[in-house]
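Running this now, will post back.
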Amino acid sequence: MIKVYFDGIRKQILEELDAATQKISVAVYWFTNEALFGKLMNKLDLGLSVEVIIHNDYINNRESGLPFQEFIDKGGKFYFSSSAHPMYNKFCIIDNKAVINGSYNWTYYAEDKNRENILIIKDEQHVLESFGLEFERLKSLTNLVDDIRVLTKFEVDEFNQLKARDYLANDIIYRAKETGRNDIVDEAFQLAPGNIEVQQRAVDLSLTKKWRLKHSIGTSLMHNGYLIIVPKGKMLPFSNVKIVQTVSDNQRSSAATIHYGENTKASLNKQFAEIDLTGLPPKPAGEAKIKYTVTVDIYGVLRIEKMSLDNGRCAPVTKKITCLLEEVLE
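Update: finished.
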């Protein structure tokens, strides 16, 4: 018997784990979900044999992650795959009677954002035997762990086979929403400080305070002109791109001042930064293009980068602008 699921996957896995009476063998690349981990711990308390194979990277093995050492101390068999033999499987064998297999890592990210699938296969003896043999082979390629050395935040990329920071930051946000642990949201922001999407998700899920700009932020133009790049009232975090062009023939640089205020003349707004891009290619007026990339993160840090679209030369500026923010109370 084979059943396929595209939604409510964690619920289905929990139901299958709950029915286990003898042995559970889990091989998943990433494992951060507390409910699934709690079910395995419960089965250890009931005397079942439980084995887990996961990859040894910062998503799985960090101070704020799942307490796998407690799993070991309770009698669970725990294995880390390494960069030499990374284990990307996502399957679970239950009582040698059922297999759960599919795309689904046991994480909040997989449950709450990704489109995933699992197959639950029962009473297919040749399939069960094949998965059982593969699990034993994976154990021979991994390391049985008795005492876990928890990785530090400085090792976040060291053992990473995939791009870990963004995945983990999103996973922490979904975990905070589901468990009510708003205290862990800052960890997500610190892991991926430039990821505006992660910060926006936290705001959308009401996991952090909401802030907006009290004044517009803009850049000076020729003849005392003023281009608003972040409008007044904009909610944080914010990200935007604007394209401008040179105004004179063979213009080799683009100097600008950064202001806050609403006046159409730059000099009548409050200046607080300068940004000067040099090395522009000699071209007729209007043909050399410059891209402004602007972000304001949840902490009120403004980052502006001017980049020549002709040769890639960049000029960045970073400023703390918390004095320009006001909290939005709902």
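The mean pLDDT is 93. More later if anyone needs it.
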